[in-house]
Amino acid sequence: MAVLPSPAHIPDQTGRTAIVTGGGSGIGRATAAALAAKGARVVLAVRDQDKGRAAAAGMAGRVEVRPLDLASLSSVRAFARDLDGPVDLLVNNAGIMSGTLRHTEDGFELQLGTNHLGHFALTNLLLDRVVGRVVTVTSTAYRSTYLDVDDPHWERRPYRPFPAYGQSKLANLLFTVELQRRLSAAGSSVLATAAHPGWAATGFRITSGNRLFDRFMAVSAPLVAHGPEGGSLPTLLAAVGDVPGGSLAGPSRFGVRGPATVADAAPLADDAAVAAQLWALSERLTGTRFPEATRPATP
Question: What is the pLDDT of residue 218?
Answer without folding.
Answer: 53
